[in-house]
Every structure is written in C-alpha cells, then in structure tokens.
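Hey team,

Filing this mostly as a record. A colleague (T.K.) asked me to run one chain through the structure pipeline before their review meeting, and I want the input and output archived in the tracker in case anyone asks later how it was produced. No errors, nothing strange. Just documentation.

Input sequence:
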Amino acid sequence: MTERYRHLETAAKPEALRRVAIDPVTRVEGHGKVTLLLDENHRIRQARLHIVEFRGFEKFIQGRPYFEVPVLVQRLCGICPVSHLLAAAKAVDRLVGVEKIPPSAAKLRRLLHYGQVLQSHALHFFHLASPDLLFGFDSPTAQRNILELVREGRFREVALQGIKLRKFGQEVIRAVIGKRIHGVGPIPGGMNKHLTQAERQYLEAELPQVVSWAEQGLALVRRIYLADPDFHRRFAKIDSAFLALVTPDGGHELYDGRIRVRGRDGEIVFDQVPDRDYLTLLHEQVKSWSYMKFPYLAALGPEVGWYRVGPLARLNACGFFDTPKAEAARQEFMQLDQGLPVQASLAYHWARMIEILHCAEKIGQLLADPELYSGELEAKGEMRSEGIGVIEAPRGTLIHHYQIDEDGLVRKANLIVSTTHNNTAMNEAIRQVAAEYLDGRELNEALLSRIEIAIRAYDPCLSCATHALGQMPLQVELQDAEGKILQRLYRQSDGTVEAK
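Output structure:
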C-alpha cells in the first residue's frame, strides 16, 4: 500500500501544477499545513504535510543549569508537560550518576505518568477525534467538536464521560506534583514528596467509575471501528514497522524499558535495545519543506526504514499487558489482522482506549502500594557529562538527551518528540487519502476534511503547543500554473463555509 503512493512525495515540474493548501490543519496541537499539487485533470501529483513552526528548545536551554531542565522543557506542551518533565528527569538522573531511583520515587513517577497518559488520551479521543467518528466524516465542520457533542442529546453522556475521564487523570497529576499543568515533583535522583493518605482516598473513591467509563469508551470506539469496513481496509491504511519500549519479557511499557522494533510482517527486527543506544539505532533526515525531521532506522535507510510510534505501535510491538482488562482487549484487537501488526491509521483510536483502561487499572494497583506513602525518595551518585532519558509519551516514544559542561550547564540538547517519529507516516497517510478520495475529483470541504482526519488519528503535537477545539478559520485556494486563483473555500471561525 505504501509503495503505491510513494510517487506523491515529489512531483516533476511542480511550478506547472495547481496548488491546494489546507492551512492550518485544525484540532491538532501546534501549527501545520498540507499542500496538494494537482494537474489539469485534478490528479494528485504531490501531497505533503508541512510543519511551519520552529520550536528551538534545544537551543535556548543551552547555558542553563542541568537541574532546571525538567521544569523548563515541560513548557514545550500544555497538554503533555508531564511527558517532557519525566523524560528530562530520567536524563538528569543519569547526569547525577543515578541509574536506578528508589522504589518509592519510581512508583510515584509511574503514577504521575499513568495519570498523564490517561488524561491526554481522553482529551484527544473525546474532545478532538470522536466528533469526526460520531457525527460522520461528511457532517458539517461546525458540528464536529466537543461542544456540539455535549449539546447533542444522543452523544451528551459520551462527551461528559470523556471530560470526566480527563479530569481524573489531571487530578492524579495534581496529587503527585501539586498542579495539573506544569507542576514540580521529580528532582535529580528521585521525587520531592510522597502521596498523602487523603490524596489516596480521594482518587480511590473515583476509580471504580473511571474504570467503568474507560470500558464504555473502549466499547464505543470498537463499535464505531467495526461498523465501517473502510476504517480498517481502506482509509489511511499504510504499511510500516513499529517502534516502542517494552519490558525485559516483552510486555507493554510506558515509563521505562528497552526499545523494540517490530516489522510490518510481524517479525521482531530489533529487541531490547538500551535507550542510550538510540543514536546507533536511529538517524534523522532533513527536508527543505518542513521544520520537522524525518527519523528512520539507520540499518535500513530512509526509504524503507521509517516506522510508527504511539498507542498503535505499542500494542503491535508488545506481547502482553500486565493488567487483565487491557490484556483481554489487546488480544481481541490483535485479531483484526490475524495476529499480524494492525496497520490502519484509525486503529490508533482503538489502541488509545485500550491504554486508557490499562492506565486506570495501573493507577488502582499503585494506589494500594504502601511505597507511595513512605520510603526513600532520593538517590545520589557521581556527576556525569551526559544523560539520556526515554519514555513512552501518549503520542509515542520521547527522547531527551543532554550534555553538560564542568559547571553543570547544558552545552548540547537533542529532543526527538513522538510526532517527529511519526512524520513520514503522517505524510504517507495523507498521500493515501489524497489518492483514494481526492484524486481526479473537484475540490470540496468534505473531501479535504478527510486529510485532516487522517492526520488527527496520530494525535500530532506539531509544535508541542496546545490543542484547539477546531473552530479555527481555514482558507483553501486552488491556483493554476500561472498563479491565478481558480477557486476559494473559506471556513469561518463559526464553522460556516462559503465559496468565492
């Protein structure tokens, strides 16, 4: 499938083709656009996702003390700050010579991370993606948002459950680090406080309902997905390898672990690769039309070595979950392609809901662990000049790599965020959708919205910024080879669309 649309990456004599731009892509984090090049017969000749915003965090944290880094880099994102906080904290642990933090600190960090993954997945599915799935791809753009779900009687309960699920995840975060967004908890070599019994009682009281909501959300996305064969067989289905962290025995892992790559045929290509060896495993390619790099497996090269990360990758890569409800759901999910890796982009939504259920189960297990409430919180070691931290953020594998000088100031930083790993995959997905649904057809809003839906399946954080509800204005122009505008569509901030 992927090779079939490879020709859409580049186009001969692009200046002679007509250009269609989707700018900005909505209901994602950050700013990006899509450009399509068409010939006189409306045939798609090129399709690209452009990341037009420059982050620069690797540069402006240079010269800062190493112990400030976790707090600074979590400002990359308003939705997944905990992911950057923890990845940086793991890297800083190694800078201070600590390979293994005390059990109490490790469990507190895990609790924090499960709360983060739960709230981020709930936000993406219920607030950003479910309106497309529940109202339908061809429904008016102004209707496809969380506010309309709340207003719509038949979907109101679903939307409210999603809002409450996210709230619970945020409350877990607040309990561990003091604030729902941009809190402080991890310190070099550990954590700064235990959980209190009052916080435990508050969270445990909510947990049965949270598990129930997670199960209902999982049943919902399963029903939606199976009701439309196109979701699995046709829409944005591409073939790729998958990369994720796993436990030593191959289980699903979010906070710690080693890297596994499973090929598109289901075979394990690399396994138990230490996180500090990521530079040997991965290389990055730069392209002139995007600020975001294109990672690939060094041993396979950029043409065939690209891969996917995130919830779908984690389910495809791992051998099991260590919580019963999520494991039962995983086993059913993996039968979609008779045990082979599930390749459909929209399957990311199903995978997310399985992980929400898993996180709820893990939070329950941890809240019953006495080491959350007492025990050593900090370990010491000898300073080093380099530290690498890798975790599984909600969107996929997140890498933080820092080098410091003799004064403890950052002299070099390298951050590979989850969305960067998925860069090639998102471009492949929009090429497939453009070729299948737009090729040879006249431009209209409903067809163009499918490109955004394909991108949205990956829950991209295009600049590690914040989510938008999707009521952003959009202008799409169709131009001829001389630059003359042939057709314009405007989507206003209220969601109405008009042609000019």
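Quick notes for T.K.: The chain is about 40% helix and 20% strand. The two ends are 36 Å apart (CA to CA).
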